[in-house]
Design brief:
The protein is of the alpha+beta class and 795 residues long. Helix content is 51%, strand content 18%. It folds into 3 domains: 183 residues, no CATH class; 224 residues, no CATH class; 170 residues, no CATH class.
Length: 795
């Protein structure tokens, strides 16, 4: 019986080729989009669960009772203390990201030093803690000396051309000093879904050596309870509960003296690091976004609903062609269950034809997804079994749910009425109306959301930042390694296509700036945290930042240089509110106020800032060049750089591109919403077009009679479409408050944001109305071209 149902279903699908093609295309698109989003969700949720012992692996967080804050960095001395106190702990490993503690780390390759940000220091136990797969290693204990280092497979290939590199040497530069390290082992690259990514793993002894030799720290200072330098990872014995460890924490704090410092320690499961809230200080590991998960999960659900509803609408419409078939089968003795099984089999068969096509399409567009969205979905990985089971289950569910309504409706038809009825009346299918309204609701919601996201991102990227971001580049350098900043600046200034040159103590845009707290005594005693910048002369003209009042620092006046500062408008407003008329910041005199300029993000308010001239503190050179001369100016600067510092890499940043990179996640979010809004339009359009085919057949005689009685084409078109205008109105009434609520919440996450306005809603509603009208008009025009006599000649 089941096989007969499948064969009958197959014949019916290929008999109605137009409906089958529209249905299949809608299902393939819907399933593909949903699979992309669901794969993203699976990938995000798999972070840090790629390690063999992730359930027993924890990161130790430090909590200060007075501040009530959480800190990712812990004292170096914590690891040996915690290992000796807790016998339940199998391994303890300290992990220190060297660039965060000592600045840029460079490694020599073919006599040129390259910055390596993924350089960490750790203990020998890191191999067991992170389940590192060693491809090659020396005999004996790993990382048992400051002279040894482990490198990843791709790093070994990049530096030596082979992963058989045990015993070879690497020249490492840290804080201006050279260190020669011996490669002791090569490990497989850490998984892409690991929060820790390391190309180089040196020993904790190497970290201590740098801090002592390069920064003058003492051994006793490094072992103090206040010296926070590393993250501490603990691996528990199998089947041991972390709760038992936490119950012994008060005794541990007392015996080790941490309680006198007001410290306590919490244990964070390694699998929770990626989605843990951002309130942990000094936590530099990459973070996921739970809001994005909710948004993408909702989009996946919406697209699946659209595809399913589109299929249901077309199946419902096409069922009019089967009334006689159902009537004959009932007369011949077919039961309701047999009819339902056949119709459900047709529905499931259709979706399972779409399933492999969707999965194949997903693989084909994977490179495009990586390039367009800047995210690697990693479809063909260890998660393949999860993908297949989940996607197949979703496909079957879509097939059953989409076909259920048609199956139960047709199987309940009276055989006599079924044999008499030739065509159905769409008005009788109230659920079909609900489906249509729901499709339009989803399409409208996505379009309003896209318009809001686009305007918000464009508001900042194209808005007034308080500076000129075009034709500006930064040349990065380490003052301890490169001491020719002033000669380089003089050489660059002589280029006829360079407008201005200056320097800054940080490379903008970035968040790592110096913060200082200044106490004020006035109407009320208070203190303000300022961002502090050291600049070279002519910094503000070079950046295109204008003065609100006062003047710039005079390079010819030594008193001006020594005792004057410039503040931004935000700092002036805060200071005037506390102490009106104040023009002093400690021992410094405020001689100028500049406009606020935004080089951070949209989420936080512009901070009060202080600018002092100190060329020797500059770590970046700013170059403003004439439009169209970027390549020539860069070539000239690079040539000069290589003459002055041939062993140092030439590193530059285009300011406008770096500023855009700050909002890469938001722009990706905009792209996602745009693409899926377009697909929603496409899927909705296919459903409406299929429905229009049936409606035009149903109303063929009505149109013919109207034409005979003198109705104009415009009047007929309006009569054919007015019902859908009503549906759009209902969808808009539901979509506007729904979208307004969620988009207001999203906009309020930004400090600087646009306001949700009726113009956005009007544009969305008008666009959807034009789109629906165009689809219906396409079919209506075909009906209007028909000779009315052909439709009514047998009446």
């Amino acid at each position: 019986m089941f096989l007969n149902s499948v064969v009958s279903s197959y014949r019916l699908l290929f008999k109605s080729k137009i409906y089958t093609a529209i249905n299949l295309l809608g299902l393939v698109l819907g399933l593909t989009v949903a699979f992309i989003l669901l794969a993203f969700l699976i990938n995000e949720l798999s972070y840090n669960r790629c390690f063999e012992n992730h359930q027993q692996l924890f990161r130790v967080l430090l909590k200060e009772r007075k501040k009530n804050n959480l800190e990712a960095l812990t004292p170096l001395i914590l690891a040996p203390h915690i290992k000796s106190f807790y016998p339940e702990i199998r391994q303890v490993a300290r992990v220190s990201t060297l660039t965060q503690l000592t600045g840029t780390i460079s490694v020599s390759r073919k006599e040129v030093f390259y910055d390596e940000p993924r350089f960490i220091c750790s203990d020998p136990s890191i191999v067991a803690v992170l389940s590192l797969q060693m491809l090659a290693r020396s005999a004996g204990n790993l990382l048992n000396s400051a002279n040894y280092i482990l490198i990843s497979r791709h790093t070994s290939l990049e530096y030596f051309g082979s992963w058989q590199t045990v015993g070879k040497h690497l020249l490492v530069k840290a804080n201006g000093k050279m260190y020669q390290l011996i490669v002791q082992g090569v490990y497989m690259d850490l998984p892409w879904n690991s929060s820790y990514q390391a190309d180089f793993i040196a020993s904790t002894d190497f970290l201590k050596k740098i801090l002592i030799e390069g920064f003058g720290e003492s051994e006793s200072a490094l072992n103090s309870l206040n010296y926070l330098t590393s993250e501490t990872l603990v691996l528990l014995n199998d089947n041991f509960s972390i709760r038992k460890l936490e119950r012994k924490m008060p005794l541990f704090l007392k015996q080790t003296g941490f309680d006198k410092k007001g410290y306590t320690f919490l244990f964070q499961n390694f699998g929770n690091i990626y989605f843990y809230p951002d309130q942990i200080e000094n936590d530099f590991l990459p973070k996921g976004n739970t809001t994005n998960l909710l948004v993408y999960g909702s989009l996946a659900l919406f697209i699946l609903l659209l595809a399913g509803i589109n299929y249901s609408i077309l199946s419902t419409a096409r069922s009019a062609l089967r009334f006689k078939e159902i009537g004959v089968k009932k007369v011949l003795g077919a039961s309701k269950n047999q009819l339902r099984m056949q119709i459900l089999a047709e529905s499931v068969l259709m979706t399972f034809i779409a399933f492999p096509l969707a999965f194949l399409l997903l693989g084909l567009i994977d490179p495009f997804i990586r390039e367009f969205f800047g995210y690697e979905i990693c479809l063909y990985s260890s998660n393949m079994r999860i993908y297949l089971l989940l996607f197949a289950s979703i496909t079957m569910a879509i097939g059953f749910l989409s076909g259920a309504y048609v199956a139960f409706y047709l199987s309940a038809l009276d055989p006599l009425n079924a044999l008499k009825i030739k065509l159905f009346s769409y008005r009788k299918f109230s659920l079909g109306k609900v489906f249509t309204v729901f499709q339009l609701f989803i399409t409208l919601s996505l379009l309003i959301g896209f318009i809001t996201v686009y305007l918000q991102i464009n508001h900042f990227l194209s808005g007034n930042l308080g500076l000129k971001k075009e034709n500006l580049l930064f040349i990065r350098f380490n003052p301890k390694e490169f001491s020719d900043y002033q000669p380089l600046k003089a050489s660059v200034s002589r280029n006829p296509h360079v407008i201005a040159v200056s320097g800054l103590s940080v490379t903008l845009p970035e968040s790592a700036v110096t913060l200082i707290r200044i106490r004020f005594t006035g109407i009320r005693d208070t203190s303000i945290i300022f961002e502090s910048y050291y600049t070279d002369y002519r910094f503000f003209p070079t950046m295109g930042i204008s003065f609100v009042s006062g003047r710039d620092i005079n390079p010819e006046d030594s008193t001006d240089i020594r005792s004057s500062v410039i503040i931004n408008r935000e700092a002036q407003q805060i200071m005037q509110a506390i102490n009106p008329g104040a023009y002093q910041l400690g021992d410094y005199k405020i001689i100028g106020v500049v406009n606020n300029f935004n080089v951070r993000n949209l989420y936080s308010k512009i901070a009060p800032a202080i600018f002092r001239v100190l060329p020797t503190a500059c770590q970046a050179m700013l170059v403003r060049y004439e439009t169209g001369w970027k390549d020539q100016v860069l070539a000239d600067i690079e040539h000069t750089w290589k003459m002055m510092a041939p062993s140092l890499p030439f590193q530059y940043q285009l300011f406008d591109k770096e500023l855009d990179n700050l909002y890469s996640k938001e722009k990706n979010f905009e792209r996602v919403v745009a693409v899926f809004t377009f697909l929603a339009f496409l899927i909705t359009g296919m459903g409406l077009f299929g429905l229009a085919l049936l409606l035009s057949e149903q109303k063929m005689k009505e149109v013919a009679i109207r034409k005979v009685f003198g109705a104009s084409d415009t009047n007929i078109i309006f009569e054919m479409q007015k019902e859908f205008y009503f549906y759009i109105t209902i969808a808009a009434v539901i979509a506007v408050p729904f979208t307004w609520y969620f988009m207001e919440r999203w906009l309020n996450s930004f400090y600087y944001h646009i306001n949700f306005s009726w113009q956005m809603v009007a544009v969305a509603v008008i666009s959807v109305t034009i789109y629906v009208s165009a689809i219906l008009l396409l079919r209506t025009r075909t009906v209007l071209k028909e000779n009315p006599l052909n439709a009514i000649k047998y009446e």
